[in-house]
Design brief:
Length: about 160
């Protein structure tokens, strides 16, 4: 069924997409609908409210005015101003024990990486490691007040890689 097809044509067929040759070189692809999408990202926390305040300041996120976060709340939700990203902090009884398996990589919007690191440190983060490279790529690893690692990349990517 796939014999005689180019690698691109095989990939298109295997992913469930349809393809139609166009002027001999280009391929028009109609993608299959996704089965799931990320609703929000959840973080376990000893103090969900304190974590929501810290991350609101780091990311310029806001809480839902119809359901404001309060000290002692077991769940505290914050959202980007356009509501495209949601972070949910959930109070759990046990603290962080080992390195995170998932973490956020942040890219500054209106300042350099070094200026953003200083701003976030002043909000209560702690410095863990420096992985900057001579070409300007790399990152600085910080931890939030409960020890969750996150990285700050350069404002402008130095290349095409994810950590540039």
């Amino acid at each position: 069924m796939l014999a005689g097809l180019s690698w691109c044509e095989k990939r298109i067929r295997l992913c469930g997409c349809t393809w139609k040759p166009f002027d001999g070189l280009r391929v028009t692809v109609k993608a299959v609908a996704m089965t799931s999408r990320i609703s929000h990202t959840s973080f376990d926390a000893l103090d969900a409210y304190a974590q929501s305040v810290f991350w609101s300041q780091v990311l310029d996120f806001v809480e839902d005015p119809d359901d404001p976060n309060e000290p002692g709340h077991e769940e505290c939700l914050i959202t980007s101003r356009d509501r495209s990203h949601l972070l949910l902090f959930i109070t759990v009884p046990d603290g962080k024990k080992v390195k995170n398996r998932v973490h956020l990589d942040l890219r500054p919007v209106d300042r350099t990486r070094e200026q953003e690191v200083e701003r976030v440190l002043a909000l209560g983060a702690s410095h863990l490691a420096d992985h900057r490279r001579p070409d300007g790529s790399g990152w600085i690893t910080l931890a939030d007040p409960e020890g969750n690692e996150f990285c700050i990349l350069s404002k402008d990517p130095a290349g095409s890689g994810a950590t540039t």
